[in-house]
Specification:
The chain has 69 residues and is mainly alpha-helical. It has one domain. The protein has 4 helices and no strands. The longest helix is centred in the first third of the chain and has 24 residues.
Length: 69
């Protein structure tokens, strides 16, 4: 894997994490699991695969919600 691919994956991971965190903040009172928030985001199959593949690179979500992958 070259440098450009790695940087692109990091960028996509950051975008997906921000999108998920935005959804979680909007619905924070519901206290849903992360999987339920992902389901509520109404993502396409490709976007869900991208999100799930990106989760290992999430930083803020891990710190805030103490999620372990």
């Amino acid at each position: 894997m070259n440098y450009e691919e790695i940087e692109n994956r990091k960028k996509v991971s950051k975008e997906m994490e921000e999108k998920l965190l935005k959804t979680m903040k909007q619905k924070h009172l519901k206290r849903l699991s992360v999987a339920q928030y992902i389901n509520d985001m109404q993502l396409t199959g490709k976007e869900k695969a991208c999100l799930l593949g990106s989760m290992k690179n999430f930083e803020q979500l891990r710190r805030t919600y103490r999620i372990h992958f």
